[in-house]
């Protein structure tokens, strides 16, 4: 029987569990519980060319344009053609996307899409509804290991043979499998303000780096202009759909920030984000003015609930306090169209992977679709690949010996302050070089994950991601998409 380990319980990890043949021995390992993921937080929707008049070809063109033509064209073709079929399958299984009063699917429009092709579920709670639905279809005999962190990969005889974990009791174990699938998401918590779930700390990227697995497009981090912020802490995303419905960005004096920019408040995310950052640097505070939106609470129930939960008096003031912050990672572990990484028997799906589909900037609502498509392709490829030879089926318990290397790591607060300033929204060659020189004082690359506390492991993983982003940004010949370098 083929044995498979899936790392991560977001949409990509959950969906691949439903795509693998029924007789496989599957374990899903996830850091916290099955509801802790970015997938559960996705608000905007999932893009698919399913409406009359729309076509995969136009979706492909929109995706390439948003990605500044840095995308892998074959990966984009695969996304836009297989994606709609997988959505049809989910609907046939009972997934309920929002519909118009006549029963037809309701398609929303988002920035840079030329057609209405964004499907929603439960209004602005699409990610939650979709991931929960997919999880409800996972077979009962699939094993879940929650509150368990994958620390490293087991690499033997030039192939991936499983993972090293720290389980809920703190025990470190080696788990063997024929196939390992990384679905561990992006790296939002490399920055002080982020929309991402607490568990998203670049672990998959760091363990790929430690095992010399190829990475791609590390420079490209997407920042979102509108994070709900209070006392400089982020309390979730304020979806772009709110600007689509008529909200405008203003400062504390009511000045319209985007007034002089082409496309104004609906300019591309990176353009809006840079403008907001410049405004902040002049000492202003930032708000979304929602006074033009009728029936706000009905139209945006999830956002309204979140605002109320955080005591934001939006109904009276008609203003939402926002700041830009980290949102999505276009780069990641390099894969082919079947989600195969450069290490045999290791696959990467969803946001941790880089199959080239997003290019230098992601088109809104394409990432949930990529979770489905990359997982579907990986499942088919795995089904065609024979089991590993001489695989060790037993779990072995390692007792981590004390390290002779004393860890020298920055504090997380200092690291995040620097990432925001030096490898954030606006970069410069000087800042990138200064950042790398500063990182050089620490020994995060020499440390053994098994010998680190969870806190230190997170810092070490974030340092690895930060180094890779800075180096990749410096290596780009010119600014492109989300990698904006002053003067280049
Ligand atoms: C607020 C928000 C709104 C968004 N809105 C949209 C949208 O409208 N449309 C869209 O297409 N995209 C949207 N995105 C992006 C999209 O949600 C993500 O790209 C996508 O859900 C990623 O899915 P994933 O399964 O790859 O990773 P995630 O859903 O992030 O799941 C990763 C999983 O891996 C686990 N994990 C991480 N490290 C480890 C470890 N070391 N050991 C074990 N487990 C680990 C995590 O706990 C988690 O369970 C949004 C993102 C955010 C944050």
TrEMBL record:
The cross-references to Pfam families, in alphabetical order and at most eight, read: FAD_binding_2
The source's domain of life comes to Bacteria
The protein's matches in Gene3D superfamilies, at most eight in alphabetical order, are given as: FAD/NAD(P)-binding domain, Fumarate reductase/succinate dehydrogenase flavoprotein-like, C-terminal domain, Succinate dehydrogenase/fumarate reductase flavoprotein, catalytic domain
EC number, as in UniProt: 1.4.3.16
Q: Which cofactor does it need?
A: FAD
InterPro entries per the record? Answer: FAD-dep_OxRdtase_2_FAD-bd, FAD/NAD-bd_sf, Fum_R/Succ_DH_flav-like_C_sf, NadB, Succ_DH/fumarate_Rdtase_cat_sf
Q: Where in the cell is it found?
A: Cytoplasm
Q: GO molecular function terms here?
A: L-aspartate oxidase activity; steroid dehydrogenase activity, acting on the CH-CH group of donors
What biological-process GO terms show up in the record? 'de novo' NAD+ biosynthetic process from L-aspartate
What Gene Ontology cellular-component terms does the record carry? Answer: cytoplasm
This protein's UniProt keywords: FAD, Flavoprotein, Oxidoreductase, Pyridine nucleotide biosynthesis
Residues covered by the FAD-dependent oxidoreductase 2 FAD-binding domain: 4-368
Q: What class of enzyme is it?
A: oxidoreductase
Specify the pathway: Cofactor biosynthesis; NAD(+) biosynthesis; iminoaspartate from L-aspartate (oxidase route): step 1/1
Database matches in PANTHER family: L-ASPARTATE OXIDASE, L-ASPARTATE OXIDASE, CHLOROPLASTIC
Q: Which purpose does this protein serve, as stated in its record?
A: Catalyzes the oxidation of L-aspartate to iminoaspartate.
* Family, similarity comment: Belongs to the FAD-dependent oxidoreductase 2 family. NadB subfamily.
Protein name per Swiss-Prot or TrEMBL: L-aspartate oxidase
């Amino acid at each position: 029987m083929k044995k498979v380990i899936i790392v991560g319980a977001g949409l990509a990890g959950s969906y691949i569990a439903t795509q693998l043949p029924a007789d496989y021995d599957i374990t899903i390992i996830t850091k916290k519980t099955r509801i802790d993921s970015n997938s559960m937080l996705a608000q905007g929707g999932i893009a698919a060319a399913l409406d009359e008049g729309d076509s995969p070809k136009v979706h492909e063109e929109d995706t390439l344009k948003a990605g500044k033509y840095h995308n892998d064209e074959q990966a984009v073709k695969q996304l836009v053609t297989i994606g709609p079929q997988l959505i049809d399958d989910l609907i046939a299984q009972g997934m309920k996307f929002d519909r118009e009063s006549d029963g037809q699917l309701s398609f929303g429009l988002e920035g840079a899409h030329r057609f209405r092709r964004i499907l929603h579920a439960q209004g602005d709670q699409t990610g939650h509804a979709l991931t929960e639905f997919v999880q409800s279809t996972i077979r009962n005999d699939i094993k879940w290991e929650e509150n368990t962190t994958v620390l490293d990969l087991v690499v033997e005889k030039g192939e991936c043979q499983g993972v090293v974990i720290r389980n809920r009791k703190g025990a470190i174990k080696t788990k063997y499998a024929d196939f390992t699938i990384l679905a561990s998401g992006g790296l939002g918590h490399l920055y002080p303000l982020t929309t991402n779930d607490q568990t998203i700390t670049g672990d998959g990227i760091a363990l790929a780096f430690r095992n010399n697995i190829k990475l791609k497009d590390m420079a490209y981090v997407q920042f979102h202009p509108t994070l709900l912020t209070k006392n400089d802490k982020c309390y979730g995303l304020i979806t772009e759909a709110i600007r689509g419905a008529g909200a405008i960005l203003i400062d504390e004096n009511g000045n319209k920030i985007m007034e002089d920019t082409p496309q104004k408040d609906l300019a591309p995310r990176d353009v809006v984000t840079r403008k907001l950052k410049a405004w902040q640097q002049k000492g202003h505070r930032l708000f979304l003015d929602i006074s033009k939106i009728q029936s706000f609470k009905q139209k945006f129930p999830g956002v309204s609930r979140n605002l109320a939960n955080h005591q934001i008096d939006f109904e009276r003031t008609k203003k939402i306090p926002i700041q830009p912050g980290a949102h999505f990672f276009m780069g990641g572990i390099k894969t082919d169209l079947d989600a195969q990484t450069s290490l045999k028997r290791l696959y990467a799906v969803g946001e941790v992977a880089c199959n080239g589909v997003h290019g230098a900037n992601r088109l809104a609502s394409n990432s949930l679709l990529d979770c489905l498509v990359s997982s579907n392709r990986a499942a088919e490829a795995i089904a065609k690949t024979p089991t590993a030879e001489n695989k060790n089926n037993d779990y072995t318990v390692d007792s981590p010996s004390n390290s002779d290397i004393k860890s020298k790591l920055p504090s997380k607060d200092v690291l995040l302050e620097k990432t925001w300033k030096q490898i954030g929204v606006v970069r410069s060659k000087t800042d990138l070089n200064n950042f790398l020189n500063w990182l050089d004082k620490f020994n995060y690359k020499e440390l053994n994950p098994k010998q680190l506390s969870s806190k230190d492991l997170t810092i070490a993983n974030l340092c690895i991601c930060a180094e890779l982003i800075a180096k990749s940004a410096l290596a780009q010949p010119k600014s492109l998409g989300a990698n904006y370098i002053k003067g280049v």
